Each structure stands twice: as structure tokens, then as C-alpha cells.
Amino acid sequence: MRVGVLGARGKVGTEVCRAVEAAPDTELVASVDAGDDIEALVHSRAQVVVDFTHPDVVMDNLRFCIANGIHAVVGTTGFDQSRLDQLDAWLADAPGVGVLIAPNFSIGAILMMRFAAQAAPFFESVEVIELHHPDKADAPSGTARRTAEMIAAARRDAGSAPMPDATTTGLEGARGADVDGVRVHGLRVRGLVAHQEVILGGAGETLTIRHDSLDRISFTPGVLAGVRAVADHPGLTVGLDSFLDIG
Amino acid sequence: MRVGVLGARGKVGTEVCRAVEAAPDTELVASVDAGDDIEALVHSRAQVVVDFTHPDVVMDNLRFCIANGIHAVVGTTGFDQSRLDQLDAWLADAPGVGVLIAPNFSIGAILMMRFAAQAAPFFESVEVIELHHPDKADAPSGTARRTAEMIAAARRDAGSAPMPDATTTGLEGARGADVDGVRVHGLRVRGLVAHQEVILGGAGETLTIRHDSLDRISFTPGVLAGVRAVADHPGLTVGLDSFLDIG
Amino acid sequence: MRVGVLGARGKVGTEVCRAVEAAPDTELVASVDAGDDIEALVHSRAQVVVDFTHPDVVMDNLRFCIANGIHAVVGTTGFDQSRLDQLDAWLADAPGVGVLIAPNFSIGAILMMRFAAQAAPFFESVEVIELHHPDKADAPSGTARRTAEMIAAARRDAGSAPMPDATTTGLEGARGADVDGVRVHGLRVRGLVAHQEVILGGAGETLTIRHDSLDRISFTPGVLAGVRAVADHPGLTVGLDSFLDIG
Amino acid sequence: MRVGVLGARGKVGTEVCRAVEAAPDTELVASVDAGDDIEALVHSRAQVVVDFTHPDVVMDNLRFCIANGIHAVVGTTGFDQSRLDQLDAWLADAPGVGVLIAPNFSIGAILMMRFAAQAAPFFESVEVIELHHPDKADAPSGTARRTAEMIAAARRDAGSAPMPDATTTGLEGARGADVDGVRVHGLRVRGLVAHQEVILGGAGETLTIRHDSLDRISFTPGVLAGVRAVADHPGLTVGLDSFLDIG
């Protein structure tokens, strides 16, 4: 598979280039960054493009790819509904082309969220702990909020009862933040990278699902999975999980 | 739902009786143990029977239930293929009756095994740790062996590569037991009850799925789930997981 | 060693009686509860008494023991400074007698707190997570508060810098409760018993100290340790840790 | 404090140089590697040298430092008894000079080992799990072996009973390796770096001490602690722990 990378000299793009070169079934045919000519994608006959650029340029990049029949796997952020609608419109005129927009390429994180939501209706209690380095600006993390929302939605759909909690006295903040009725706790400890744990409990037992992300390169297997599958999924797809053939 | 319990005065049966009485949608109408008349199930118009008795008597119990149109949820052990074939034959003559044979009613354990097998093909490495009290006679535990077999089967089906392991020197036993190519480690520590952890890892990240069973009553929610669903699954079902509506 | 138990028919006292009988070097010579004659301690020539009774009666019990030259190991709560002063005064007249007042007899909990405080000055960050069943009324737990206070005191004595935390946006409660500058997070999950984890982190590494209390009997080894050592510690001692010969 | 680094261009030496420059109370005055003139240490008036070089050259380096009255903090490996005896002899002629030889500068690892050994006599059972990336050649790790030996020695000194283990049937290797009677389990999982867990258990409770080393720089705080303290410890010291003022 002939792959081009947009944002090829960025931190993430550099790792993507390395992974595309290392995999036996993908070939890096174009590395494009700010200042380079995007026509290189066409000249090199790239079949799939990976875009880790910037919200300011990603739409132009995608218009070009779609117009030239190149599939795209996109990790750049900033996609709101109007952008997704625009992509849908462009793709309507390019029936064979697939575009994947994914907020998270870590397969471990995707599975953690999915399993947590699937298991949530089977237990009385579910809480989320996220643990990060202390230079992080937001608490809880975006992934923890999203996980809690998915858990809450799954329990709502299943008609689960509210979680038991007899707390009547205590210190402010001791029970964490409330995200749609799910308690979320954020730790900031030097030496940590990015970690999350979901604890589910019922009579006499608990189930714990934990994801530890220790290195930036954890997203590369997910990017490669997207590259391999995007041609078989014409049109617009949001979220890598729909490409993963789980169970 | 009118429920009878066979083996009602055993350790497990006692908890089952208590759980059936406590649940809002089930009613305990018959408690039968060795020496009692099994006809009580018919007189009390039990719709479902829960059987935690003994391999020596369970087949007689089930022939009686099937003949009388009573569904059965069975936690008694000792079912080999010939017994399952016998049940199939009896059920062929009782088209509306459902029988569930389950080796494990802990929903946490069932989900742990299922998630571990689903996730296994997405990672380079998978290992299993089981931790129990030191009075246990077998190592590794039956659940750990079964988990490893499920992981190995899932990876075989997906065409996963063998796991990386550069170990060349060491002490005997340091890398655990080999179950179908999956390493399994058994700890025996006073104070523990029954715990298992599956660690899956790929480039830069790990996913950990852990089950802690701290009290015998952890199986009662699974038994109740079986009681509620068995009437809707006529014929023979092996394993509670096919009754759980996951994801 | 001849041991009497006060509060012998209570939940805790029952376990203490059992442990005293089971240990090879202790003998249960008197079991006293409300309505029984405390003189039984003298008639049975008890050398040490274990008291798990009630704040209303414990001072009378101890006055009796001290007056009769019987050592005491006390798990009953409610000791303020004035009570401790009173005990000191009584013990001044009974020079050989030892009394141990301990808020916590779990050796695991005592070591967790001690190690956490010892390690705290060597790391940039320290946070505490406590996890309990959801029927608990207070959050955070008393043990977690005490642990955080000990950590804060150790860091103050060592002149440690404040912990790093770049959090600027977030949800209320996400960063837990603040106990003397140490963040404490409380989870309430069905199936849990009583658990606590202290996470310490510095550049590139973390140290985690975790205590899991799964069964009420976890305090009995600590009670026996107190029984064996109290005769060698005449006067008043508060806290079992000073009896433990650590390192 | 004026610090010189030997092996300054190696992986570890580079991090040491960076840490010495970053700390407020240390100044990097000489960076020496193979091919450079070691006299630079004298010309720059270094007070302390950090040596992360090679077993082939470290003894020459130390002879030079001792002869010139420069203290040394040494992470280079390969010190057997005859080398330590040689250092003692050289130091006898340089009464004010201190040399620290440390196999491990990670404060987290040192505390983990120390706490595990201190706690070991208070519990019935102790086992060790070490978890590393799958490119590691030896199993179990050297740190895990050393930890198990320290645990075994502490229990021997305390007269602890052998650990309970009722295992009678099982698979080869399931119970791990036996190091002086302490079971050690080694996992090799892609995505992991270097992790170790010691689980201690008694009636109804467990204490777990875990060290996670996620980044090479975890040793730099220990090196700086050595640099700051070595001048106050004339003569030869083996092991950083004797410099740490714990509890």
C-alpha cells in the first residue's frame, strides 16, 4: 500500500513515517509538511494519506485528497459538525473514497472505553480514575470525561439504577467530579505519563479495566490499522473503533 | 417468576435462596435438598429451578424438571459430552423447556475472559496472572487455564504472530507456565481470595483487565440473570455468557 | 500467656477469643462481656486483657486492670487527651503495668502509613486513593486522612517543596480533597471492602504502596503482637507501631 | 558544588550532565569521555566526580580521583570483592575522600527493596512479580532476585515460618522461580518498561509495594543525592541506601 504523510516533520508525523516504513505491507511514498507541494501525493501515486497537521489546513488537505481519489486517515483535531457535513458533501461526489476522522488512535484506549461501556450495566457501581503527569492543564482528562459519558449512556439505555453512595460527611472533592452521574477522579503525579482505570463492582466482586500509555508511539498501530482498512470503508467514518473487528 | 432451589441447604444453595427471596421479580416457592421430595417443585408450581447439587444426582433432577416442563439453571459440575447429549435428547421431547449449564456464574469473570479474548489479537503480548489463597491445590487455576486457551484461540483465528520473548538465561519457572503459548503465572498469598489479571501490551501501551472475587455471593447476580433469561432460550445452553446482552 | 477478653461476645471480641485460643503461646482464661463479673479476670489469673468494648465502660475496665496488675491491649475508641492523662496517673501508681491504646491493629495498614510517610520526602508528588464499599458514611476515610497528615508532616520536616500541579481548568472535585496539601481521592464501589493506595512519583518513576483489607480478621495478628509485647512496655503506649520491631 | 562527569557522552552520562546543570546547588565543571584528558577534572577544580563509564577503565579513573582528593559517585558495574578491597587500600591513604559505589540509583527501587524486606517478617506470605519489555535477556531480573534474597534474609533473621503453599497439582512453572524460598514471577510484555511488585499477605489483608520505572532519567535524583552526600561519608560506601536518611 502506497502511503503519503501530511505533517511529516511534526512529532507525531515523524513517528507515523517511521511506522509506515517499518511495516511490511505499507510503503512511504510522500512526506509533505508546511511549505512542500501537496501535488507530491499525486506524483507519487499515494493510495492513502495520513494527516496529522493543523485545524487551519486540514480541510484544504482533505479537499485535495478527495478530489484526487486518495483515501485519508486523519488525526488532526477540530472537527465540528459543519466540517463533517462538508466532508460528507465532498465525498458524495467521490463514491469510492474513504475518510477516517479519529480523535484517538490508541487501540488500548479505544478498547478500554468500549469494554467499560459494555460492562457498566452489569454492575451496581462504576468509577473512573485517571492519572497523569502534573504538567497537564485540565482535570479530568478528555478521555476520562468521554469514558464517563459512554458509561452513563450505556446505563441509561439499560435502565440501570443510580449507583449506591451513603456518603453523608466528608471533605469537599473527596468523591471526585460528577460526570453524568459517574464519579471521576484525577491524579497528577510526577513520573506518570497517561493512565486510566475504570473500576466496576457488584456483590462480592470487582472488574477493573486499566489503560497505561507510556510512549507517544502507542498510536502508530492504530494509524496503520486505519491505513489498511480505510479503502474498504468508502465515505466518512468517525472513530477508529468501527474499523476494529472486535469479537 | 416462581423459583425452586435444589441443593437449598448447601453453602451455595443457601445464598441462592436468599438472593431469590431478595430480588423483586423472583419468588422462592420450593427449597429442596437431599431427603426432600422433589415433587415439591411441581406442587409449588415452580417455573424455574436452580440446581447446585452433586454430579451424582443432577441428571435425575434434570430429567424430572424437563419431564415436568420446568426450566433449569445449573451450577453443578461434572458435565461431559455424553451428559450434554443426553440432555439434548430429553429436551428434544420438551420443545419449550430451557436448560442452562454454566461452569461460572460470576459476571465479572465471564466479562474478563470475553474481553481478554476479544482484545488479544490487537496486541503483541498477552500474559495471565492469577492470585489465590495458599490453600488452593491446583496451579494455575482452572479459570486462568481457560482464559489462556481462549486467548490462544482468538490469536490463532486472527493469525497473530507468536509473542516476543528474548529470554535466554534465567531460573526455572521464572516465565511461568505455558498454556497454548500464553504464559500463566500463579501466586499463592495468605489474605487473598480469588483474583486474576490479564496484561496485554503493544508499542508504548498496555491494557490490563482484572477480576477480583472477594466473596462467595459474587455468583448470585449471574444466577438471577440465568433465571430471568432461561425461559426465553429453549433447548440446551452451555455458558452464561450467551445470555448476557453485551454491547 | 494467660489472656482475658473484655467485650468477648462482640463481633471483634469473638474473633479475638478465637485467635487467642488458636495461637500456640496464648491461652484464653476469661471471656467477659456486659453483665458478666469483671472479677473473673482476677480469679482466672489473666496476665493480659484485650478490651474491645465501648467508650462508656472502657475507663472503668482499665482502672480495674491497672489496680490488679493486669496489662491491657485496647482497641476501644474514644480516647482524648484527658483520658490519656488519667491513664498516665493511674499507671504512675502501678509501675510494672503496661497499657497499649491502638486506633488500628492492622499491621498492613500501620506499615502502609509508616512507609508512605518515610518515602514522601524523596518524591515530588504524593497522592492518596482510598476505596471502600458504598455503605460507608464518611469520605475520605479516617485512615486516608491520617495517612495524608503523616505525609504532610514528613514533607514539612524535610523542607519538601509544594507538589507540582498545573491544573487550570476542570470540573469541581476532579482533583480530590486537600488534606494539608496532600490530595486524597475516595471511591465507593459495591464489592470492595477497605483498600488504600499511596502513589509517590519523581522524575521517570513511581512508587505505590497499597493495603487491601479483605476480612475483619486482619486485625488479629496485630492484637496478638500487642498481647505478646505489652508486658515489656510498662506505662502507656499509643499506637501499635512502637511495638513493631521494623528494620 | 563543582561536579565532573566521566562517561559524559554516554546515554546515562548525558542525562547526568543535564541534571547536574539543572540543579540549583551543583555546577558542571568538566565533561570527560573516552579520548579526553582526565586532568580536566583537576584543572576545573571538580570536587565530586560521577562515573558512568566501563568496567575496563573505572579503576584507573578512581585511582586518579582518590589521588587528587576528588570524591566519586560511581554507577559503573563490575565491582567484585577484590576491586572493593583495592579501593579500600587506596582510600586508606586519602582519609578525607569518599567513594560511593551503587548498583542502583533509583530511589524508588531502593525504597521498594528496603520496605519489602522490613515488612516481610510480619506476613505469612511474600511473592515478587517483575514485569519488563520482551527484549530483556534474563528472567527473573537482577533487581527481583536481589529483592527476594533480601526478603529471605529478613525472614531468616526473624525466624519466620516457611510460607504456606498447598499446591499439589499443576503445570510446570506455574508457581514461578524459587529464590531462597521466595517465589518470583517474570512477565515480558511489549509496551512495558521496568516494573516490580512485592505482595505480602497475612490473615485477611495484603500489603503491596510496587515500583514503576518509566524513563531512564529516574536515576538522576539518586545520583544528585549521592553527589550531595558523598563528601560527608569519607571512605568506601556500597549502595545508595546508606546515604538516604529514611525515617
From TrEMBL, chains A, B, C, D:
Annotated NAD(+) binding sites: 7-12, 33, 75-77, 102-105
Swiss-Prot/TrEMBL keywords: Amino-acid biosynthesis, Cytoplasm, Diaminopimelate biosynthesis, Lysine biosynthesis, NAD, NADP, Oxidoreductase
Active-site residues, Swiss-Prot/TrEMBL: 132, 136
Residues that hold (S)-2,3,4,5-tetrahydrodipicolinate according to the record: 133, 142-143
InterPro entries: DapB_C, DapB_N, DapB_N_CS, DHDPR_bac, NAD(P)-bd_dom_sf
Pathway: Amino-acid biosynthesis; L-lysine biosynthesis via DAP pathway; (S)-tetrahydrodipicolinate from L-aspartate: step 4/4
NCBIfam families, per the entry: dapB
Full protein name: 4-hydroxy-tetrahydrodipicolinate reductase
Organism: Nocardioides astragali
Gene encoding the protein: dapB
